Amino acid sequence: MCALIRAILNLGPVACGVLALSGPALAQNALSSPAPSQRRDQSVELAMKIKTSFTLVAVGDMLEFQPFSKNADPDVQYLVKLMRNADMTIANNENMIVDIDQYDFSLEGATHPVGGSNFADKAVADDWANMGIRMVTKANNHTFDGGELRLWENLRQLERVGIVHVGVGKTLAEARMARYAQTPKGLVSLVGAYAIPSNRTVGYGTGGGVQYVTPEQIVQLKAIRDSIVARRGEVADPIEIPEPDPAGAVSVFGILFKSEGVPPPSIHDEAAEAQPHATNMKATNNSLRLTAYNGVTAAQMAQLRAIAGDKGGGETMTAWKQNFRITAKPGDYTYDMFPQDEADILKELRTGKQFSSFAVATIHWHQNRFAFQHYSFDHYPADFEVKFAHDAIDQGADAFVGHGVHTIKGIEIYKGKPIFYGVSNYVFQSQMVPAERGGSATGYSSSAFSASMPGPKEIVGQGQLNELSQGWLQRPANLEALLTSSRYDGGRLVEVRIYPVDLGQGPRPGSDLGTPRRPSPAVARKILDEVIAYSKPFGTTISIEDGVGVIRLSGADKPGSH
Length: 562
Fold this sequence. Notes:
This protein has 562 residues and is α/β, with parallel strands linked by helices.
């Protein structure tokens, strides 16, 4: 029999001997074999598992309200082809996509205003699929525009066209989970988070209530405010110079301080920390909560403690529902992440990498570093952003992508992985938000803008109203973006290509503003020079080759091969 088996299976005598084992002999042989390890090597599990050439394209905020991917303009198709030809393309879903013919806006009720909610028709989802977007995050400051019903409709439209969404769920645990997309080269996981700003107002504006102090303390508070405003010249897009204060009053840290009236018994309050979004909806996003601190000098902190009646010490203080921290200069913002939030997000990121071949972490953040800088115009990451990005890479992310601020930020190569701190908005058609079905004729109350209209009988189009409401975010710095392409080979990053994107650096009609195009050589050079400057603190070397920024790591192909 053994000879027959050897002849049929072409096995040698040893193999035949093994086949001959049966019953007790076979059981004894199995028991004597060493058991496989029950603990997998995490250095293997967290390494990139795709060994063939693999390309990730990442773009930022998709504020798209009219399709454009089938536009035959070669400068449009240049970018579309880059996205479509990548092994994986990801983006941030910042608008709200609905089927306008089927969705019932009246079900949302009166609690959700019809205007300003980034409403887009279902054709936009088809457009995203056509340009090659495979995965998006919905964890951002527009997760709940229009309410829960519209959120679920948005997610249904993504699923209809085969786009995987992350960052939102019916529970926080579900929102934090990695989700997956299969590619021919391996499984890709994505975790999307949103850095929730502190629920306390920072800066020098109003809105934080009224506090009563002495005339001498008013003088001290004005000096603190003026020391912050005096730093406006340090940034390209500073805050506006505040209006003159009324007599006996000053506005700073979002609080109006007055020297008239009767002060309350105590103006010191409990710790001011970021809180989750208050909502009765059965949905949440993957939030990374932050405690924001207003920076003041040591001398200013002593003054504030005396004014607040705070008897404590140390480098931080909480008063008037504000957090303060001693910094080298007044007006610096610092942030502390909620430790449990960060730990939970990193756990899901690590899990996603363990279950997949390639992992991406993406986050939406708007935090400035300075109180004297215009909101959402910072080109450098805040302190917590660098820490969180590094922690994400340490837990297995093969790439890290930040967005939120409507301006570009620098790029860092950390432990051989790319960190894009801010790729800006890839599509920014904010002046093209349509009027909503079931709402008012324009979606906005025209009386709110009557002072800006030429005459009382002027017919005002939706585009005019959108332009007035969104104009503050249509500066040159908002109308440029990055399309990043990261190429891996042999299980490691070998090259990053940075494609500058023009959203309206030159004159355009409103119907074309915010649509991404390949820039002219001069505009491309301008954008890439900015990226080089913003990346300099990280020691990143970026060359410019044929209008494209290139970061080439050891072992990359020679210039011109791609």
